[in-house]
Amino acid sequence: MRKLVKLTTLSAALCSLFAIQARAGTVTISATGLSSSPIFVTSGLGSLTVGTELNIGYFYDTSALTSLISTYKAGVEGIGNTLAAAQTDAATKSGLLYSSTVGWLSNSSNFKSLPAAANTISQTGGAAGKFLFASSASRTVNGVSGTYAGATGTMDVTYANYGNSLPLWAWVATGSQITIVTDSTWVIPTSPTAGLTIGSAALSNGAFGTAVNSNEILLGSYVDYSSGSDLVAAASIAETYTVVPEPSTGALMMIGACGLVALRRFRKV
After folding, report:
1. Which residues of 194-221 are buried (b: 16+ CB within 10 A; e: fewer)?
2. 17 in a domain, yes or no?
3. Is residue 6 part of a domain?
4. Which of 9, 27, 33, 161 fits a 20 to 30 Å CA distance from 45?
5. What pLDDT, on the 0 to 100 scale, is given for residue 247?
6. pTM here?
7. Is 168 exposed, middle or buried (0-12, 13-18, 19+ CB in 10 A)?
8. Do 12 and 92 form a contact (C-beta atoms < 8 A)?
9. Residue 144's beta-bridge partner residues?
């Protein structure tokens, strides 16, 4: 009987511990441009396409992330015997650089996604295991009204599956451009039921004209306006072109003639 009581007590304690660890907190996502918070846009300052994924999570190796960003920022060099050929070569290299960068960012060995392991995601027009820019709304940017895609909703997340006090990042890939941002307030809570907000408003850095924290906009640019919503623009890949002309027919004939003269001299010797 005593053994049964001990086992029952132990079982209850284990169940209680499991329940504590399994408790979840609510993560609120807000990237819509409301209240003059910045809007995620393309490098051309246009709206993102509805359905574009907003990736949220943490990177295991921040040194590797820094190196990846540096490589992306360095851009590519197109080489060809004409400007058109050099541009084609650069376009090919840009495509490869973009694909390899997104491949690294999305690899589960490098990045642990919150939405992918969320218990539930509450977002109109969303998708299972993903958080999307799922709706468009009118926003005023620098005095001009326009329609921009935004991401808003909540996730039910078990923080114990990730680790307390881990910093979080958000990144967006448009198909040819990438944005990577973070903020010091984006940290997994130590309390299993605490709320957490991942919002673009955290990327606003003071009044118009003040310096933007480069530790927040890791890849992309912050476009600051005196009125209306600011913008966080994606980074495109910089391209340079090097033209290496093919030798002309006359030059080839001259080289050939010089070779014949040299050959004759060699034979006489």
Report:
1. eebebbbbbbbeeeeeeebeeebbbbbe
2. no
3. no
4. 27
5. 72
6. 0.82
7. buried
8. no
9. 141
What local confidence, expressed as pLDDT, does residue 208 receive?
45
- Residue 59 to residue 78: CA distance in whole angstroms: 31
Residue 236 gets which letter from DSSP?
Answer: P
Q: What is the DSSP letter of 188?
A: -
Q: Which two tokens stand for residue 97?
A: 């650089």
pLDDT for 35:
73
Residue 49: predicted pLDDT: 96
Looking at the domain assignment, is residue 240 inside a domain?
yes
> Which parts of the chain register pLDDT below 50?
1-21, 206-211, 250
The tally of domains found in the chain comes to 1
Residue 56: its pLDDT value, please? 97
Antiparallel, parallel or unpaired: β 231-233 and 221-223:
antiparallel
Strands in 111-113's sheet, in edge-to-edge order, are: 111-113, 55-59, 167-173, 178-187, 217-219
CA 201 to chain centre: 17
Contacts of 137 (CB under 8 A, 6+ apart): 32, 33, 147, 148, 150
Q: Distance of alpha carbon 144 from its chain centroid, rounded?
A: 27
What domain range is 213 assigned to? 24-268
DSSP class of residue 61?
-
pLDDT of residue 98: 98
CB atoms within 10 A of CB 137: 13
Token digits of residue 146: 């326009």
**Is 150 within 8 Å of 138 (Cβ atoms)?**
no
